[in-house]
Design a protein that fits this description.
Layout: H1 2-12, H2 29-36, H3 40-47, H4 52-64, H5 75-87, H6 91-103, H7 111-123, H8 127-138, H9 150-163, H10 166-178, H11 186-197, H12 209-218, H13 226-235, H14 241-247, H15 253-270, H16 275-279
Helix pairs in contact: 3-4, 4-5, 5-6, 6-7, 7-8, 8-9, 9-10, 10-11, 11-12, 12-13, 13-14, 13-15
């Protein structure tokens, strides 16, 4: 009887819009790759498609135009599609509208409306909106959108960093290292730098390794670990050469071998290779 009552109750609950993110990647690389590889067949299929991903990519194509595909720029249709998608809780579209209203591109420039769209996307968990909003409050981008506020910047950058954005996590590490809007906290700075180095979304995989190596070498926010420091200097490619040279005078041969093996293991697992890997073949 209880089960039947529960099922009946669900039938009368109002429909709740579920937030949808089509391209979670905060670098934009996934969308750009699809956009640049569009074919005439794709565009023809997108025109009448009801699939939200198809509609979003088509709106982006209309926003920019693709003369090679015979697709002229159409602001009216593109903005209409983006607004419909945004109303249906597709937050890629909400973010796109925020950018358009900020730039005054295809629509009249409106900072207030742009900010509302940025906040709506950020508050709904869209990492790219969180990142841009954090950078705006920090005064690094979207000039004139908001007044600089380090605490609000940190709030949104932490959200974006936790979402998986490499750059935002690195920014948060910097805030705690330099005391930007917060008290200096070496442990938090180290934790966020480690999160940055292994972030899910990064244009260059492992770009945060150099700073992480420095943390391990100096013992900033963590215990000194020269083997790990050597590993991350090695993973930093040529940028880590000076660090490796310095540590090679302090480490035993077997310790250096252990560090190099750890570096090679990471490279093979992530299919990302630095020059030192090939030198050891």
């Amino acid at each position: 009887m209880k089960r039947s009552f529960f099922v009946m109750l669900l039938m009368f609950l109002p429909n709740i819009a579920v937030a949808k993110i089509i391209f979670a990647d905060t670098t934009g690389d996934e969308l750009n790759s699809i956009y640049h590889e569009l074919t005439n067949e794709d565009v023809a299929g997108f025109r009448n498609s009801s699939d939200e991903k198809d509609r979003y990519v088509y709106a982006v194509a209309l926003l920019n135009g693709r003369s090679d595909l015979g697709l002229e720029r159409n602001c009216k249709e593109s903005i209409s599609i983006l607004k419909n998608l945004s109303l249906n809780s597709v937050y890629d579209a909400t973010y796109a509208l925020a950018v358009q209203y900020y730039r005054g591109d295809c629509v009249a420039k409106d900072y207030d409306l742009a900010l509302r769209y940025f906040k709506r996307g950020a508050e709904s968990g869209y990492g790219l909106a969180q990142k841009k909003l954090g950078q705006a409050y920090w005064g690094k981008t979207l000039d004139g959108l908001v007044e600089e506020n380090d605490k609000k910047a940190l709030y949104w950058l932490e959200k974006a960093g936790a979402y998986g954005d490499e750059e935002s996590a690195g920014n948060v590490s910097y805030f705690y290292r330099e005391g930007v809007g917060v008290q200096v906290d070496p442990q938090k700075s180290f934790c966020w730098q480690k999160r940055s180095a292994f972030a899910k979304y990064s244009r260059v995989k492992g770009i945060g390794f150099l700073k992480l190596a420095e943390y391990y070498e100096s013992g900033y926010g963590t215990e000194v670990n020269l083997v790990k420091a050597y590993t991350y200097y090695d993973l930093s490619g040529t940028a880590g050469s000076e660090g490796k040279s310095r540590l090679s005078k302090k480490l035993a041969d077997n310790e250096i071998e252990k560090a190099i093996n750890a570096s090679r293991e990471w490279q093979e697992k992530n299919n990302t290779f630095v020059p030192s890997y090939h030198h050891l073949q």
